[in-house]
Design a protein that fits this description.
85 residues, mainly beta
Length: 85
């Protein structure tokens, strides 16, 4: 993870819209996910509108977070993001 990404606070992104590298909507952030460290999230749980499916978006897949518009842009295309639940 780059130092710029380390500075981004993923705990405040609940409700943000997530778009893939092609600008297609993936869904909305449901919650940050904690794995390697109990106080720093390393992924986001994103819920799509289609069949209410969830996807795991790793922090390193995030290209940019726009706090003004509430949109997270990804480096990946939607099809390469893992689904769960």
């Amino acid at each position: 993870m780059s130092s710029a990404m380390a500075a981004m606070d993923l705990t405040t992104t609940t409700g943000y819209l997530v778009a893939d590298a092609r600008g297609r909507v993936v869904g909305r952030v449901e919650a940050p996910m904690f794995g390697t460290s109990p106080d720093v999230p390393d992924a986001l749980a994103v819920r799509s509108g289609f069949l209410r499916r969830r996807r795991i978006v790793p922090a390193e897949a995030i290209n940019a977070i726009d706090g003004r518009s509430g949109v997270i842009g990804l480096r990946l295309v939607r099809e390469s993001i893992r689904s769960f639940g």
